[in-house]
Amino acid sequence: MNTTLQKNKDTGLLFFGKVTASVTHDVKNSLATINENAGLLTDYAAMAARGKPLDPERVNALAVRIMDQVKRADALLKNMNRFAHSVDDSLKKVDLNEILQLLAALSVRFAAMCETTLDVRASSDPVEIETSPFGLLNALFLCLEFAMAAAGRGRSIDLRPEKTATGACVHFGPLPDAVISDQDPCLAASIDARLVKNTEAGTLTLIISDR
Amino acid sequence: MRVLLVDDEEELVSALGERLVLRDIEAEWFTTGSAALERAESGCFDLAVLDMKMPKIGGLELREKLLAKCPDMKFIFLTGYGSEKDFTSATAGGNTAVYLVKPVDIELLLEKMQTLFSNPRGDA
Question: What's the complex ipTM?
Fold first, then answer.
């Protein structure tokens, strides 16, 4: 196996591991919250058994919390499942609007740790491209990591897809101070893409070719 | 026993705080390290239960800052990751600490709290 291919595979595995660790961490948090709130309900039940009256509003609020956490965990697992299936096809037509929504959902915790918020500026029309779904997600994630580091703490990053004559692109911004070195930070070449800086707009743009 | 709880999951830390108070433990909870540090300015706690991974100030950094104010404080770390690296980091440094993986059974948490005070090395 040539070294570039091996490097891409290693980077892909690292990406898969990172995302899995992050999502499972959030699922654990959700389960822990359910555990404490259900435990609190059992504490109230025990107190009621000893004669202390139950407050129905308080009980209801705890039950709602538990239901909300179940929804949260379900959404996390749904996204994780979609992500896991991104390796099913080496080439597939995907809508960048949907891919960016998935990327943002998978990256919420990374963004929170960087004190960054992500805003997907989806296009009203589908922005379709034929590419490797997993390779694309990996490249976008690496670009996003690079963008969050360049933006600094306490900033918001917009992710905006756009259709082009030869495929599509994704703009990351505002990043007026980002500097791209000779070393491609996004493994863009692995999906036939390239990262450029648009100085005038203050954005980084991943230009992706249709396969 | 005065217990400081810090976790960025508000619905988790508030419920845990209430459960400890119901068990006659003096517990206060915060969702950020900076709010906990501000509270510690006005008085030390005996024990802190800290989430390992939090934005801005993580659990390990918070331990160092709290120890600078309250050198006798003991620590229990909670995490969703459960990685060996986290365990090593939490229990290193010579300070008494216990490491638990979420979700935590409250009886186990209470047992670990007692252990830290009956066995200051925290290695029981």
Answer: 0.89
For each of the domains in chain A, give its residue range(s) and CATH number, in order of start. 3-86 (1.10.287), 91-209 (3.30.565.10)
Domain count, chain B: 1
* Number of inter-chain CB pairs under 8 A, A vs B: 61
Residue with the two structure tokens 């040539």: A2
Average pLDDT, chain A: 91
Predicted model pTM: 0.88
Chain B residues touching chain A at CB-CB below 8 Å: 9, 11-12, 15-16, 18-19, 22, 53, 55-56, 78, 80-81, 83, 101-104, 106
CATH number, domain at B64?
3.40.50.2300
Range of the domain at B88: 2-118
Q: Is B55's CB within 8 Å of A113's CB? A: yes
Pairwise CA distance, residues B77 & B63, whole Å = 10
Query: pLDDT tens digits, residue range A63-114?
Result: 999 999 999 999 999 999 999 999 999 999 999 999 999 999 999 999 998 8
Q: Distance from B41 to chain A by nearest Cα, in Å?
A: 25
